Amino acid sequence: MSETSQAGEGTGTAPAAVRTVPLSRGLSTKLLLLTIVFVLLAEVLIFLPWIASYRVSWLKERLSTAAAVSIVLVQGESTSLSRAAQNDVLMAIGAKAIAVRDGGVSRLLVVADMPPQVDSHIDLANVGMIKGMTGALDTLFFGGDRMLRVFGPVGDSDKEFELIMPDYSLRKAMLIYSRNVAFVSLLISLFTAMLVYAAIDLIMIGPIRTMTRSMLTFSEAPDDPARIIHPADRADEIGVAERELSQMQIRLQKMLSEQKHLADLGLAVSKINHDMRNILSSAQLISDRLRQVKDPTVQAFAPKLLRTLDRAVSYSEGVLAYGRTQEPPPSRRRVRLRQLVEDVHGLLDIEHGIEFINAVETAFEVDADSDQLFRVLTNLCRNSVQAMAADTESAVVRRLAVSAERIGSVSRIAVTDTGPGLPPKARENLFAAFRGSARSGGTGLGLAIAHELIRAHGGTVELVESIGGRTTFAVTIPDQPVRLDQARGTLRRPA
Asked: 375 near 450, Cβ under 8 Å?
């Protein structure tokens, strides 16, 4: 059994190895393993006080047995016990000697082979939690060959009993206890993990798997309404996610359908514009011959006809240029901006009375694609010229100026004219194709294309101000970032 994974990038169907996740790497397996690990960690934390309590209980049990034997011996004569009997008593307890302290006087009751030294003294009346856990771990990991002196009161007796014993039996009992606890803890963790896994798989993992499958199947055929997920009637986060995914798939399906219709319509319009441009170009060539006709009537309407045809040809070319798939990435070089502005000036059809000022310094350079920057400046300057051409009054100042400045590593080019300014509708849709035109009959494609080209440079095109008598557009282009390894290589290269 395997879980479905996120689909790979691209429009096609991803390979099966990418679209499915092996069971060993699925969310269910990870959840199961994490639950087991966390439960075992909790059991380890609980095990420390358990093993400490077991050690103290084991020692108290041995001390209680020794106390019972001591009371019998105190009331009788300890010397009446033979050596064999004493050894049997000590062997039954697992001790080397038994003593009792009464009224500050210590009395040795039973002794076998008295050890030369005692390694550890354990006062059972004053064993705290921390001391008990550290002592238990010490015995568990490093014990087995030590001699212990265990002492303390037993029950309500005012006597204090002492026991000298090796810790071999204690460590052996603790190891058996630890093994049993570990086995029980493993069973508890497995049982708990299975319950948690079953609950979470039913509540969360299962619905997530369903949503993942829905996304994958929807990506294979987004135009198929049957592949939209049907959200469950849940009020939690999973229910919200399923409903949002369903709404997103519905909106995406509608958007894709609309885009397909628009793409088909755009293709048809592009074909129509291509043929229309050829027809208009032929009509433009024929209309040029009308200027040679001396008839006053023809001379009256010929200029209007030519301007109309020019406008139609320009519209068709703009639509075709905007309809291209995508502009190529900019090929950036150091460009002398003043010379580029002069080339733009030479291309513009500037009427008499419009002054063009190239205010760019001769040494000013900009890091940009010269062809794309030329198109941007041409569009901006042509818009300014067309805006000022509508003013026929001779006293009105008609001036177009292009200037530039550098701010750190950023070049800022300003295109300023003294035209009437942009109307409010044009400002609202400034860089929107077919909606941002400032004049009647315009397409608004010039600013849209300029905005796209400059954004590919990492820069911006913005309207700084637009009032009657002054309109300024600013083109901002940052220099390319210098890669440190290339810069070091250039500096190390011998001259």
From this structure: yes
CA distance 299 to 249: 62
Length of the chain (residues): 495
Cα torsion through 371, 372, 374, 377, rounded to 10:
180
> Measured between alpha carbons, how far is residue 221 from residues 32, 227, 256, 420 in Å?
34, 8, 11, 52
Q: Which of 35, 34, 26 is nearest to 206 (CA)?
A: 26
Q: SS3 of 31, please? A: helix
186 HSE (CA, 13 A, CB side): 5
Residues 6+ apart with CB under 8 A from 279: none
Q: Where are the beta strands (DSSP E) in 362-398?
A: 365-368
**Among 225, 284, 271, 278, residue whose Cα is nearest residue 249:** 225
Mean pLDDT by 10 residues, the chain (495 residues): 42 45 64 78 83 89 81 60 63 78 74 79 85 88 87 82 86 90 83 79 77 83 82 78 84 81 66 64 67 71 67 62 65 93 85 88 94 90 85 83 94 92 76 56 67 90 86 93 61 55
Question: At a CB cut-off of 8 Å and minimum separation 6, what does 390 contact?
Answer: 420, 439
Q: DSSP letter for 430, please.
A: T
Alpha-carbon distance 218 to 247, whole Å?
13
How far apart (Å, rounded) are the C-alpha atoms in residues 151 and 97? Answer: 12
Alpha-carbon distances of 406 from 215, 363, 475, 478, 479, rounded to whole Å: 49, 12, 12, 10, 10
Reported in sequence order, the residue ranges of 146-216 that DSSP labels E, i.e. its strands, are: 147-153, 160-166
Pairwise CA distance, residues 268 & 262, whole Å: 10
Burial of 451 per CB tally in 10 Å (0-12, 13-18, 19+): buried
Please give the Cα distance from 304 to 312 (Å, whole number): 12
From the number of C-beta atoms within 10 Å of its C-beta (0-12, 13-18, 19+), residue 419 rates as buried
